[in-house]
Amino acid sequence: METSLHVQRGYLKTLVYSLGITLAVGVSACTYDRAPEAVPNTLQVSYQIDIKPIIATNCYSCHTANSTDPHKAGYAFLDNYEELKSYALRPSNASPNLTKLQARIRFVETPGMPLKGPMPEDDIKKIEAWIKAGAPNN
Ligand code: HEC
């Protein structure tokens, strides 16, 4: 009787121990599986359909030749695709990891754009996806 109880305890110990290992390996395998996965960049954006309307709504009041806002930046005409593209691709002095356009809309380069405060995150992300794609005229 005593012997069989002893054997049973030994068996239970082994079972608990191996269960522990299985769990530990399992959990670390899951963590390892997830870690290298980058956020998929599935955002497809078009200059004509997505970007131009965002820039028109938020920036044209100060950034075209016809802008009438007293704070207008008369030297940066963002209704001109080539000019917008140059800001989209040129590195920012404030942060070498960001382009000028990105640094302004992320409020890293000051003053941030638009002057009154950041655009909705969705709009910023669309512009960033467009920049990442090379600011195409698509
Ligand atoms: C209310 C007016 C106003 C609005 C709206 C506005 N800007 Fe500006 N922007 C300015 C002014 C003024 C400056 C110059 C400020 C400075 O850099 O000293 C400027 C500067 C910039 C510059 C830097 C130009 C350069 O040569 O370095 C960029 C890029 C820019 N704006 C992008 C944008 C974008 C993109 C938007 C819309 C999301 C926007 N701005 C909206 C007034 C505005």
Keyword list:
138 residues; mainly alpha; binds heme C; Cytochrome c domain-containing protein; Cyt_c-like_dom_sf
Structure, described:
This protein is an all-alpha fold and 138 residues long. It has two domains: 1-37; 47-132, no CATH class. Helix content is 53%, strand content 0%. It has helices at residues 2-34, 47-59, 81-89, 100-105, 121-132. The chain binds heme C. Heme C binds next to helix 2 and helix 4. Heme C is lined by residues 58-59, 61-63, 69, 71, 73, 76, 78, 87, 100-101, 104-105, 111, 113-115, 119.
Question: How do you describe this structure in short?
Answer:
Helix content is 53%, strand content 0%.
Q: What is the ordering of alpha helices and beta strands? A: HHHHH
Indicate the mean pLDDT: 83
The backbone outline, from C-alpha atoms, is: globular
Count of DSSP H/I helices:
5
Structural class by helix and strand composition: mainly alpha
Question: How many strands, what sense, and barrel or not for the largest sheet?
Answer: none
Uncertain ranges: 19-39
Domain Cytochrome c: 46-135
Organism: Pontibacter aquaedesilientis
Pfam families: Cytochrom_C
Keywords: Heme, Iron, Metal-binding
